[in-house]
UniProtKB/TrEMBL annotation:
The entry's keywords: Membrane, Transmembrane, Transmembrane helix
Regions crossing the membrane: 12-29, 49-69, 81-99, 105-126, 138-163, 183-200
Coiled coil: none
Full protein name: Uncharacterized protein
Organism: Circinella minor
Amino acid sequence: MTRTDIIQKVANVIIFIFFASMTGYTTFGKDRIANLLDEYETYFSPARWFFLAWSIIHIFLLCFVIYQWTDTAHEIVMHDVNWMFVTSAVLNSIWFRLLEDGHTILSFIISLFLVSSVSIIFHNLAQQDGASAWAEKLFIHAPFSLWHGFTIFLVVLNAFITFTKVDKDEYHTVLPPSPLQAALVYLALIFLTISAIGYVQYKHDRGDVTSSWVIAFSLWAVFDQQRPFDVICWPTLVAAILSTIYPAKPYIYKLFRISTSSSEASPPLLG
């Protein structure tokens, strides 16, 4: 291991500590990102339990910064992840701080850079012939698959925070969305459902079910939060069901021993 390699891996550890302290739990057990996004009401906001996914991502990224020191992980960390983990963690922290300070337009712009940087890591890992060790799948592929799916949803949610607002009556009760607001939700649902399906279809044999189910998880949370509004919750339920079932299709085929071409080339669960 060269001096440059050590510097990069130490940087990964330091930036993870900073990133986790910025966007994770406080010493009093409060989920900072969930508390922050609770302050922004939209017709596309998820239920609070959605942010359990963020806690899981933190745990997997912690496993990544530990596992990177092993000989098995060295090559993939240095060449496929490279400095993009540092870049993505810094961008995620900047995004959080901007939103925390009420700079919604700037936070939306940063969210686009964030999803692009995580996409580079996701793409690099997807170009591999396939992770051979379970530890590599679990501690390298899985963290970035989860993070990528999460950031896709964050971009959409940030767009609603930035460019829309909920309507309230004189008692500060949220009113049903207007036709335009409902139409924007439908566009978001279409985009996210296509994204979930696209993860599975990505290069066919290199599809990523983990990222698909992060999006499905987010749609179930939106459905739960928006249940007071039928015009939103039922289309969201349809999108959530499609995003959940489609990635599971190859495994359902295998479970029932249905011999099809798609079942023979089922996508890997962890990238």
